[in-house]
């Protein structure tokens, strides 16, 4: 009987050690997976969103800021909309309403992409403008700034990344 009891105790301890080892290994795998997911989320968050404006043979690329309004615009894409002239320094189009919470006011220069709340339009400046009440910055042109003035008719607004 004593031998049987010893074998039982040794077997129980062995099973307990193996179970503990497997729990530790599984916990390490879960922690590693969570770490990888956190890194991926951080990388995704740090990536700048880009949009392209396409019209005939022209492609203009904008990099969006991290504001709520730019995220709202990005989430509406792709769009096919009419582009309109306004004044002597901007082209504009009308998306669905954007939420300007945590969106910075604009100091618009050539190449600035903005949202003007009273009219609900997205504005692409091809000449300097400055600041305006309820004019919010969405991003900056990173390619094709000199072509904004040439836009006409229907444009495609697409995610570029």
UniProtKB/TrEMBL annotation:
Keyword Membrane belongs to the record: yes
**Classification via InterPro entries:** Cyclophilin-like, Cyclophilin-like_dom_sf
Keyword line: Membrane, Transmembrane, Transmembrane helix
Q: Please indicate if the UniProt record lists Transmembrane as a keyword.
A: yes
The superkingdom listed in its UniProt entry is Bacteria
Family annotation (SUPFAM superfamilies): Cyclophilin-like
So which residues are the signal peptide here?
none
Membrane-crossing residue ranges in chain numbering? 7-24
Any one Pfam family here would be Cyclophil_like2
Name of protein: Cyclophilin-like fold protein
Q: Which source organism?
A: Allocoprobacillus halotolerans
